[in-house]
Amino acid sequence: MPEPFRNLTSRCVFVDRDHVDTDQIIPARFLTTTSRDGLGAHAFADWRGRPDCPLDAPGARDARILVGGANFGCGSSREHAVWALLDFGFRAVIAASFGDIFRRNAIENGLLPIQVAPGVVASLRSEPDVEVTVDLEANEVRVPGQDAIGFTVDSFGRHCLLQGVDTLGFLLEREDVIRAFEQARGDGGMA
Q1: What is d(CA 32, CA 153) in angstroms, rounded to the nearest whole number?
Q2: How many Cβ atoms sit within 10 Å of the Cβ of residue 82?
Q3: Could you tell me the domains of the chain?
Q4: What is the pLDDT of residues 162-187, one digit of tens each?
Q5: Which has the closest alpha carbon to 65: 130, 6, 116, 132?
Q6: What value does the mean pLDDT take over residues 57-74?
Q7: What whole-number distance in Å separates Cα of residue 142 and Cα of residue 190?
Q8: What SS3 state is found at 140?
């Protein structure tokens, strides 16, 4: 189960590219496990060691917010990409837009995807050392000296993130209600 997400204040790591696909986030050669543990070491593996790799920058290991461009997480449905980002230490990704499957996988696993206008991404990049606050309870991103930036997350996803549950956890919390419904219909309840 993911940890509940309410608010977070952190420096950011910036991926200055649009269309970062899931194979860039975690290359296919690392998809040999169903465990989430250790995948952070392989996040952006093909970029690591280059002078411009943002995850190798000083302070990147302490950052909990990743900022990307448009269409972040596009490509194949690769839950490992979200697991790698979480294992690296990220709890939120702010981007101009997301691949739909990545967005759903992120929410399901406790990583908050925040879609903002491209100008907001550019503004964040212009102040790379500032600490940003992500407040899911208020649906706001706050940057010192600026107006709060509103964002939306679908209500079910927001509920799951705030409570620290995935879809299965949500359903299991309602087992008594489901059982009562089935018994009222004459189905005899859950097996």
Answers
A1: 31
A2: 28
A3: 7-165 (3.20.19.10)
A4: 999 887 777 777 778 888 888 888 76
A5: 132
A6: 95
A7: 45
A8: strand
DSSP track, 62-90: G--EEE--TTBTBSS--HHHHHHHHHHT-
Per-residue CA distances from 187 to 172, 179, 180, 181 (Å)? 18, 9, 10, 9
Look up tokens 């979200």; give the residue.
82
For residue 75, give Cα distances in angstroms to 34, 48, 101, 127, 153: 20, 20, 9, 29, 21
Single out the residue of 64, 44, 29, 36 nearest to residue 166, CA to CA: 36
The two structure tokens encoding residue 169: 């956890």
Is residue 147 classed exposed, middle or buried when 0-12, 13-18 and 19+ CB atoms within 10 A define those classes?
exposed
Cβ burial of 80 (10 Å; 0-12, 13-18, 19+) is buried
Instruction: Tell me the pTM.
Output: 0.89
State the Cα–Cα distance between residues 5 and 8, nearest whole angstrom: 8
